[in-house]
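Attaching the record inline, Q. Sequence:
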Amino acid sequence: MCKTKSLILFLLISISSISQTIEDISFGTDVALEIVTWNIENFPKNNQTTIDYVKRIIIALDADVYAIQEVSDSNSFNQLINALPNYDGYITSDKFRGLAFIYKKSTIQINNAYEIYNSTTFWSPFPRYPMVLDFNFKNEQFILINNHLKCCGDGILNTSNTSDEENRRLNAVRLLKEYIDAYLTSKNVILTGDLNDILTDNSSNNVFQEFINDTQNYTFADMSIATGNTTNWSYPSWPSHLDHILITNELFDEFQQNTTVTTTIKLEEYVGGWNTYKSNISDHRPVALKFIPSTTLKIDEATQSNLQFANYPNPFNKQTTFSFKGIEGEKWLIIYDAFGRKMVDIRFDEDTFTLNTENYPKGFYFSKLITINRVIKTIKLIKQ
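Structure, as predicted:
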């Protein structure tokens, strides 16, 4: 009897595992910004079947922006976008294995979409021109750079050989860093894509070493995946981890919060296994970053040049005091936690306000000041 019960229990667990479907995927939220990079391998590799799968996956993931690589047919891509009423997209000129973006219309406001290094002069480092999406999310600007670097190689960097695959990727990385350093200073930059090399090579062969060395300005959000268990790598066929997400220092504070998630999404678990996934969708898993941005809203300096809004201490423990100078009349102080939940909403006339935070969980918060003239400023608070 015990053996029979054990067998029944085993069968029930097995059936439950098998019955997991795409609709069971959970990733997107209302308050966080979700960026997904996905080499979709010669889309659509199995025609309409691929389009149908990808449609269901994008809806289930519910991310804000997808940086896509290897779109081989723009008509099929446009068919996919038309089947996603909550999303829109951009695709590079119709070229083999091009780049594309898919974004959620309700959360992402596009400022511009364009290519860089898009001349034959840069063909060697960039067989696919990098594609840039300039967008706003919750009133904050972000620059997302989508890439698909040269593949293959022997793992040895030969800087004296212009045809060496590792050397071509190294030159691409150097050009990307030069571009960000020169033109995107102080911007929230996220560089992503199938970069076709690993982060853990020794320094003499590591094409990403200039980014890795510049710890004050850059970090790979997916480094923990690259140095972790091989079962979580983005390219199981080798196996290796080739799909990366790099962020600039303007996003370090957000990235270091406990609400941030960087993960490889094992889609094969939702479609019946790796063989089904590889035959119908892709040989790469998507890699995703989820974080809650701090909203930075500029003050109208022409009318509020003497405006001061601060709190002390910050970081704080049991309480913190807000100070308002140069602000006349009614004021509103609104405080949100890291998940966007409103904690305080108070109207007052005084120049200071002390907030008791003894019962607040540790973490970061956002404090928003609103004056009668609708001038807004937001500062970040840290509870220790």
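The CA atoms of residues 181 and 217 lie 9 Å apart. The chain has eight helices and 19 strands.

More tomorrow.
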